[in-house]
Amino acid sequence: MNNITIIGIAGGSASGKTTVVRKLKERFTGQIQVLGHDNYYRAHDDMPFSQRCQLNYDHPDAFETELLVYHIEELRAGRSIDHPTYDYTEHNRAKETIHMEPMPVIIVEGILVLENEELRDRMDLKIFVDTDAEERLIRRILRDTRERGRSVESVLNQYKDTVKPMHEKYIEPSKEYADVIIPRGGHNLPALHLLEDHIEMLLRRQEEREPQEA
């Protein structure tokens, strides 16, 4: 499956990346696999929970990006992978892995996927989901308290100490590498429809090339 299309979707925390990915998966059922950069947070089995809580999870070094790059290469070569998973309640990599087979489109999603040059070089299309900072903070509080077992105080402290400064230092500047910028996240239906049309075109071109290369 050398004709696999790799799409990177970046943006600030709680910008709406997950909504964009979900809508694309619904539109292209059975044709898309998603690799979340969050699943590649480094394991810290040697640290107690209290220490893991203090780590900076918005810095590029927090991720085992080299493993993600390797997995992208494996999928593009037509080989399956078993990618890691992450437990937000424990602030650590989980023991479970997820088996993934190659598909025509691989979406690589995460806050820093456009910051890393090795990842960018493997992408056929780079997207940045752009949402107002205040809206992102509100969404993050709701998400982390409801889904990740966090307190409002811990979410706000993390936002002030690491999320906001890392966004300004690494995530926002990575927007310059995007081929497409989607304002207002997954609620921007016209932008999503244009993106779907573009992916449809990429898939058609891919299908046209395959018989010639067979």
Treating each run of at least 4 consecutive H or I residues as one helix, how many helices?
Answer: 7
What's the CATH C level? Alpha Beta
Output the CATH homologous superfamily: P-loop containing nucleotide triphosphate hydrolases
How much helical structure, as a percent, in the residues?
Answer: 40-55%
**What is the SS-derived class?**
alpha/beta
Order of H and E elements: EHEHHEEEHEHHEH
Notes on the structure:
This protein is of the alpha/beta class and 214 residues long. It has one domain: Rossmann fold. It contains 7 helices and 7 strands. The protein has helices spanning 17-27, 49-52, 65-76, 117-120, 133-147, 152-171, 189-213; strands at 5-11, 32-36, 81-87, 92-100, 105-109, 125-130, 180-183. A 5-stranded parallel sheet has the order 2-5-1-6-7, sandwiched between helices. A two-stranded antiparallel sheet has the order 3-4. A hairpin with a 4-residue loop joins strand 3 (81-87) and strand 4 (92-100). Helix 5 (133-147) crosses helix 6 (152-171). The longest helix is centred in the last third of the chain and has 25 residues, at 189-213. The chain is globular. The relative contact order is 0.23. The model has no long low-confidence stretch (mean pLDDT 91).
Keywords:
five-stranded parallel beta sheet; 20% strand; 7 helices; 214 residues
Compact summary:
The protein has 214 residues and is α/β, with parallel strands linked by helices. It is built from seven helices and seven strands.
Helices and strands, with pairings:
Layout: E1 5-11, H1 17-27, E2 32-36, H2 49-52, H3 65-76, E3 81-87, E4 92-100, E5 105-109, H4 117-120, E6 125-130, H5 133-147, H6 152-171, E7 180-183, H7 189-213
Parallel strand pairs: 1-5, 1-6, 2-5, 6-7
Antiparallel strand pairs: 3-4
